[in-house]
Structures are given as structure tokens and as C-alpha cells.
Amino acid sequence: PVILLTDGYIANGSAPWKIQSVDDMPEIKNNIIEKASENWHPYDRDENTLARIWPIPGTAGLEHRVGGLEKDRISGNVSYVPENHEYMTKIRAEKIKRVQNYIPELTTEFADSGDLLVIGWGGTYGSLYSAVKHINEEGFKNIGYAHFNYINPLPKNTETVLNRFKKIVVCELNTGQFAKVLKMNFDGLDLTQFNKIQGLPFGNSELTEKFKQLV
């Protein structure tokens, strides 16, 4: 199945978009083994990605248990050992963190450093991009815009980009969940939240007015 996680405005909106051809997409490579080796264990992981090695179901010598209960880190048997639970919790978190090695770094538009960085994510891109473009054309040249396509994990260079700006404003069509994520991960940010929860997109005038107040 394909599960699409998106924000409410995108989910309830409509726009024309081109469906990408499967032939143009990069090949998905799985770490599959077809033969049992002497030192094989069901929960062996790739050293770099921490992804599990996949045996083909039904292969002689590669039988192992699957299911929702937590397994032993080596044997794959159901485990209730406290130390194993701690290890598995940490390894799963580290596995997600290492996705940073495969996603693009964060970039900014209009300014690489300056007085104010406008931050958005999800369906706010068009509104925020237009507002920052408009205010730059009015002469405010030290205002940049960064749009996050990846939230967990964050791009590797996120902190470096944030520290290039004196102030940060995170604009969200909610109560500020992403702003809280940034505050939780990075200390010392001069960060302002600008939230709207009316079922409507941001307007250009309300955004530019807020940005001018901050600079």
C-alpha cells in the first residue's frame, strides 16, 4: 500500500499535477539474501543504514519469526528482556536518524543569511514564498525563506542554516507543532511563532505585515 501523510490544506485542496512514471523513478534496492550462511542471524542489520537483511520467505535455513511483538536483537525470537528492549528502542531511533544521510540538505531562498528567516512546511509553500518575494522586492533584502520537506529526521545542516539569521519566524496553519520541534532540537534560537487555525491559507498582506514587525 501507499500511505500519503500530508497537512490538512493539501489533503482538502485540489491542483493539477503530473503523475511520475515508475520507469523514471530510482530503483529500490533491498538487502535480500537467498542462501543461509554459517553466521546468519534473523536480525542482522546493514552497518550503514541499520536496515534489516531480508531473507526470502520459505527459504530453507532462513526460517524465523515475524510479528508485532519485540524480538531479540540477534535470534529474532520474542523477547521480554529489559536490556534488549532498551537496545531495540535506541536502534530504531538511530535507524531513523541515519535517514539524514540520504535526504537533501536544507536550502534557503532570497537570502543565505540576514535579519529574518521565514520557515514553512507542507502546503504553506506558495503563500510564504510569495510573501517573502514581495517583501524583498520592497527593499527588505535580508529576509530568507526555508521550506522543510523533511521533518523527522531534519536535514543535517538545519542548525547551521538557522544560525545564519538573527531572527526566525515559523509560520504554520496549526498551533505551532513544528516550531516546538525546532525549539526542542536547537537551543538559543530567537524564534517567533505565527499561527493561523481558521481552515484558510495565509494571506499575503498578513504575512508581510508580520515580517515587517519582526525586522
Structure commentary:
With 215 residues, this protein is an alpha/beta fold. It folds into 2 domains: 82 residues, no CATH class; 101 residues, 3-Layer(aba) Sandwich (Rossmann fold), CATH 3.40.50.920. The chain contains 6 helices and 6 strands, in the order H-E-E-H-E-H-E-H-E-H-E-H. The strands form 2 sheets. A 4-stranded parallel beta sheet has the order 4-3-5-6, with helices on both faces. A two-stranded parallel sheet has the order 1-2. Helix 5 links the parallel strand 5 and strand 6. Helix 3 crosses helix 6. It is elongated, with a radius of gyration of 23 Å. It starts with 7 loop residues before the first helix and ends with a helix. The model has no long low-confidence stretch (mean pLDDT 92).
